Each structure stands twice: as structure tokens, then as C-alpha cells.
């Protein structure tokens, strides 16, 4: 029963009305449905009240090992006590107050991120192996998208940010380019400025450390992510949106089978507020009417399938927005792509073997 409930909770971590996956609120009555705002909960209440049931307190205590919550507690202050909620045969005409904030899609409360255990530096205390096997693999295989907060910890994350800002100050960034340059004005498509980093460059020691941590995760995931056999990656693309309202229109990272199977993005933006600063990454999972809005908040790691399953866009950023992206290759698809484009040149994403992260092939 506990495993079944855990699976159900992970499956429903999106707004029941619009599908948003960020900053969710839990229904204070059933504790199993989520909404992005009180307004959307009210709009969906006519439908939701037909299935909304009072939470079983004995089940709640099982979900949090070693913890027996007092009346109305579920890991945080409750705004609707279960004793005061009428049973299902007498559903209220208005929805109960929403409960505490729910975790973002792809991250389970109490195990990883800001709601879970952390070291003094702030990062998740899960080992790369546990993080990969227990969180990333099941989430990617089920949803195709996974979010991990507090990936490196504040101290290390700030050091990475210092490396990035120093590169930008030195003028190392250039306008982002398109794979196909058919457009007369690439800036109409994407407005970021980028630089490619192998990891061995002067002043990039912390970026190299981040790349190594990404590699560790992917090694532990290898053979378990879909049907992929991952044998390499690109250099790190360090990107900056200058905060002048630029973004990146809806696109697919790998629309033509170039070998990239997993997109891995690390965000570096302290105090980011999407309502004020914009810059959301909006993903439109293939075949679903719902979308996922990912805020580019500091020390957040995002993974998603790179192919046509995940079209996405960067909405206009009104403040300086930094991110580091690495793409991982599937061995078979990459070999086919190399054969097909054997005479091609100028590819920015030079393959790097996972065993030698700083040594391009």
C-alpha cells in the first residue's frame, strides 16, 4: 500500500487544471491532488470534489517513517484539519484551503532537494549513485523530465557562478548560433550569448567540477535510461541571456537524430523570481496537453530527453540569466550520425568520453 501511494503521489505532481509543475500547492483535504494557485483549485473544484476524499492519517504516518503527525499535520502546517471536513457524502460547495507546497516534478520530498536532508554546504546528501538510481532513472523513464534542487550546494554553486561571470567579463561569450542558419536573423530565434568549455581552461575549475558531477550521475544511470547506451557528451555550453527581454523560441534540441539523448542543464540564478524576471523554461511534452514550467533557480539541475518528445522554449528574460548545458550521446545514434555526416564540419558539440571528461576526442 505504501509503495502504491508513493507512486500515485509522484504521478500527480502537476496542477490538475493547467499542468504546471512548479510551486504547487497540495489539496488540504485529500492531500493527493496539486494546484499551481488557489484560483485554479477553485476553478477545478466542481470536478475534483467528486473524487476528493479525507486523507487517511494512518497512511500519512506511514509515508513519513518514524513520524506520527498530530491532527492536520503532513510535513508542514495544515490549513484544513481533517476532523472538521465533512465526509464525501456531504461535499462542501467550496474547496478546502490548499496545504503546504509540494515538490517540483521529478523530486520526492524528504529525499532530495530543499525539502530533504542536506550537508552543511547545502547540497543534497544523497550519493550520486542513489540520486541516479532512486530519483533520476525512475523519473526520467516515467515523465521524460527530472528536476533536482540543491545539486552542488550554495558554496560550490557560487564558485561555479564566479567562473561564469569571469568568462563573461573577459568577453568570451558570442551570440548563440542555430544548427540551421536559414534564418536571416538568428536573434529572432534565440537571444542568448554562449561559450563552449572543455573544462581544462584557466579559470574554469569549478565548471569542470560541475561537469564531473554530471558525468558521475550519468554513469550511474547508464543502461537504465530508456534503451540508451551513453558513451560520451558534448562540451559544456555556458549561456547568458542578458536580461533585455531575449529568449529562445520553441525548438527541439535533437530533431534529426544527431546522437544527443539527454539534455542536462544547471542553473545559476540567485533570487530568481519568474513573475518578476521571466525566463521560464517551458517544456511541451509530446502527446500531452500539459506543459512544464521550470524556473531557472540557483543550484537547480534539470534533465530531459533531447529529442522530439520535449519541445521547449526559453521565455523572455528580464534579468541576467545564466545556465550551463551538457548533452549526452547515445552510442548507436551517434555512430549513425557520424557516418551520415562524415564530411560535415564545424560542429560545436565535440564528443568527450565520460572516462576522460576534459579530453576531447
Automatic annotation (TrEMBL):
Please provide the Gene Ontology terms (biological process) for this protein: cellular response to hypoxia
Q: Does the keyword Zinc apply?
A: yes
| Gene Ontology annotations for the cellular component aspect, listed alphabetically | cytoplasm; nucleus
Q: Which domain of life is it from?
A: Eukaryota
Keyword tags: Dioxygenase, Iron, Metal-binding, Nucleus, Oxidoreductase, Vitamin C, Zinc, Zinc-finger
Subcellular location(s): the record lists: Nucleus
In this chain the Fe2OG dioxygenase domain maps to 229-330
- Annotated MYND-type domain residues: 15-52
Do the record's keywords include Oxidoreductase?
yes
Catalysed reaction(s) here are: L-prolyl-[hypoxia-inducible factor alpha subunit] + 2-oxoglutarate + O2 = trans-4-hydroxy-L-prolyl-[hypoxia-inducible factor alpha subunit] + succinate + CO2
User: Mind telling me what this protein is named?
Assistant: hypoxia-inducible factor-proline dioxygenase
Question: Which source organism?
Answer: Nothobranchius furzeri
